[in-house]
Design goal:
The chain is α+β, with helices and mostly antiparallel strands and about 325 residues long. It has one domain: Oxidoreductase, molybdopterin-binding domain (Sulfite Oxidase, Chain A, domain 2, Alpha-Beta Complex), CATH 3.90.420. The chain is built from 10 helices and 12 strands. The strands form 2 sheets. Strands 3, 4, 7, 8, 9, 11 and 12 form a 7-stranded mixed beta sheet that branches. Strands 2-1-10-5-6 form a 5-stranded mixed beta sheet. A hairpin with a 4-residue loop joins strand 3 and strand 4. The longest helix has 10 residues. The radius of gyration is 18 Å and the shape is globular. The N and C termini lie far apart (about 45 Å).
């Protein structure tokens, strides 16, 4: 008989979240107040109809839940999650669900290159069918001080690293999203450093929490969530969980991420959640659940410290929490 030892922050079938990036505080408050209305809007209804078209990987879902990763709060309702998204490729508001439907998901290939034994490209459908899919309940904490809880489906990022076969000299993994301004109007804004890029260390990438997401709520991943594949790094602020990945590059140089390139005084490489380290323009001590509006204390590493705190031993001189 398997006995599941739940941790202090664990619950059972309740919790999960989407994603985060910088947005001004007033827009956040206004957007949060309108979530209910957005969930019923014609635009979102249209987005959902388009998203519901047959997906060639739909037979893989729902994936079996991994009960090791439990939550301390209810899962964010799918309709709230679907209507409240950061995806700057399609606009700077949270209501980008309809615009995101312009993204073409097939064909979709992922390039594995850089310091690897043999660079290669692999089609998404081939990739997902050779990976061990499971569902995990993860909290998501946005740098804007709101949170969600999401049932993501996908596979450990460590499995993708193993598939790429990086050289021993590789120290970092750099991720890149698609670049196509013909469908993504936000990419026509030249003041942003497109394409969106993010990076983690090899140690972070192979940590058991690091997760490649291909689905949510028991179905293939909706476009506004970063289909067909994105990251979930639940101990970091949401902007680190890059969407719609097309390239995974292994390097010995620390990558400079999208927001770090744009606003280095506010966004750094590590971006680990810490209630004691404020954003330059607001506190991180508490967070608001985007569905319930409940405000709760923020936890160090978003409550996942027992999994990841060891990754940062000896790095106390680094700017770990911005």
């Amino acid at each position: 008989m398997n006995i599941i030892h739940r941790r202090g922050w664990d619950l059972r079938e309740s919790a999960a979240a989407p994603e985060a990036v910088f947005l001004n505080r007033r827009a956040f408050v206004a957007g949060a107040a309108s979530v209910g209305a957005a969930a019923l809007s014609p635009d979102l209804a249209m987005a959902q109809r388009v998203t519901d078209l047959p997906d060639p990987t739909a037979d893989l879902y729902p994936a079996k839940r991994n009960e090791k990763y439990a939550l301390d709060r209810p899962i964010t309702p799918a309709e709230v999650n679907a209507a409240y998204n950061n995806f700057y490729e399609f606009g700077s508001s949270k209501a980008i669900a309809r615009a995101a439907q312009a993204l073409k998901l097939r064909p979709w290939t992922v390039k594995l290159d850089g310091m690897v034994e043999q660079p290669r490209e692999i089609g998404f459908d081939d990739l997902v069918r050779q990976m061990p899919l499971e569902e995990r309940l993860y909290r998501l904490r946005c740098v804007e001080a709101w949170s969600m809880a999401v049932p993501w489906s996908g596979f450990p990022l460590a499995r993708l690293v193993a598939l790429a076969k990086p050289l021993s000299s590789a120290k970092y993994v750099r991720f890149e999203t698609f670049l196509d301004s013909s469908v993504a109007s936000g990419q026509r804004q030249t003041w942003y450093p497109w394409p969106y890029a993010e990076g983690v260390t090899i140690a972070e990438a192979t940590n058991e929490l690091a997760f490649v997401v291909t689905g949510a709520y028991g179905k293939p991943l909706p476009k506004q969530h970063g289909a067909p594949l994105r990251l979930a790094l639940p101990w970091k602020y949401g902007f680190k969980s890059i969407k719609s990945i097309v390239r995974v590059n292994f390097t010995d140089q620390r990558p400079k991420s999208f927001w770090e390139s744009l606003q280095p005084a506010e966004y750094g490489f590590w971006a680990n959640v810490n209630p004691a380290v404020a954003h330059p323009r607001w506190s991180q001590a508490t967070e608001e659940d985007i569905a319930t509006k409940e405000r709760r204390p923020t936890q160090l590493f978003n409550g996942y410290g027992e999994y990841v705190a060891h990754l940062y031993k000896g790095l106390e001189g680094e700017r770990l929490y911005a």
